[in-house]
């Protein structure tokens, strides 16, 4: 039912976009929207700052007359995605019942043990400080005792058959990709990395950038719709993110709906202004990619610089 509603909305928005005039006057600071010229300027800055992004002309039959022929939309390819959003959002081992006597059966904290687990997995911090002694009795005497021990007889070790025993840490090659089973699905330790192609188009109706994504498995085979939804925050699946026809390509892709983009950008502009800064429109797409990360947190596309909101500035 949700897909039917989304399709109807898509058709209605397509008609509305066709009837909407092209924005000519800049309203970036007032409302957080962009003119096509400002979108191109922000895109040029993104390509300059992040060479993994580039401009594309797209399908000639879908060319938008209000954008330059060779700058119809932005794209980046083969962006890694090593884990599923569902794995990140809920893990059974992190669950704990906090209030067992609650009348509703207890309050469950799904991330109760997450901090402890992550701390246990975290490698020891490197330091130049000398190590403290383990105990009062653990000094040079123990080291001397170790030196006096007889070395292992390797011939006896070999005759015992231990060299032929199966090592639990040895990789089972039968579970490698292409060997007949999916390691990640079978509970193996090898993570099969998906990749995504991301596009940024200009939405004429909402007058903001719009993000599109299309995924592939480790063999570069296209993911199904449901598989792509696994890599999207479950709060946004089929709501903020839907499958729609790409405006510049003859295919259907996942898209982050742009209805709230202008409001988010407007708040960021005001935050910067309150801190005494001036947010330049050329930074729009760099910041856009950062707040869209909340929708697709496991797709590792954001290699842009960090921003201090009170100090962001630049010419318009």
Features of this protein?
316 residues; alpha+beta; 6-stranded antiparallel sheet; two-stranded antiparallel ribbon; 10 helices; 14% strand
Explain this structure.
- The chain has 316 residues and is α+β, with helices and mostly antiparallel strands.
- The chain is 29% helix and 14% strand.
- The chain has ten helices and eight strands.
- It has a six-stranded antiparallel β-sheet with strand order 1-2-5-6-8-7. Strands 3-4 form a two-stranded antiparallel ribbon.
- It is globular and about 85 Å long.
- Residues 104-112, 114-138 and 173-188 have low confidence and may be disordered.
Short note summarizing the structure:
With 316 residues, the chain is of the alpha+beta class. 29% of the residues lie in helices and 14% in strands.
């Amino acid at each position: 039912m949700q897909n039917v509603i989304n399709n109807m909305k898509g058709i209605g928005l397509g008609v509305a976009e066709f009837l909407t005039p092209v924005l000519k006057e800049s309203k970036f600071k007032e409302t957080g929207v962009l003119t096509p010229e400002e979108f191109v300027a922000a895109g040029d800055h993104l390509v300059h700052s992040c060479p993994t992004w580039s401009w594309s002309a797209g399908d000639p039959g879908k060319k938008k007359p209000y954008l330059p022929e060779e700058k119809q939309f932005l794209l980046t390819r083969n962006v890694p995605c090593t884990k599923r959003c569902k794995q990140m959002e809920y893990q059974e081992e992190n669950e704990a019942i906090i209030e067992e006597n609650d009348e509703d059966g207890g309050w469950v904290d799904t991330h109760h043990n997450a901090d402890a687990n992550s701390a246990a997995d975290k490698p020891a911090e490197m330091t130049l400080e000398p190590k403290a002694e383990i105990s009062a009795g653990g000094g040079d005497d123990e080291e001397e005792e170790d030196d006096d021990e007889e070395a292992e007889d390797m011939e006896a070790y070999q005759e015992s058959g231990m060299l032929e025993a199966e090592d639990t840490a040895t990789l089972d090659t039968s579970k490698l990709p292409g060997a007949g089973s999916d390691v990640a699905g079978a509970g193996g330790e090898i993570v099969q990395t998906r990749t995504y192609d991301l596009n940024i188009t200009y939405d004429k109706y909402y007058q903001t950038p719009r993000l599109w994504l299309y995924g592939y498995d480790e063999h570069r085979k296209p993911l199904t719709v449901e598989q792509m939804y696994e890599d999207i925050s479950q709060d946004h699946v089929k709501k903020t993110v839907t499958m729609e026809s790409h405006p510049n390509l003859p295919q259907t892709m996942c898209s982050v709906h742009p209805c709230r983009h202008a409001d988010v950008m407007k708040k960021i502009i005001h935050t910067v202004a309150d801190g005494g800064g001036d947010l330049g429109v050329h930074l729009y797409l760099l910041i856009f990619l950062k707040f869209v990360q909340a929708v697709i947190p496991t797709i590792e596309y954001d290699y842009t610089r960090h921003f201090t909101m009170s100090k962001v500035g630049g010419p318009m």
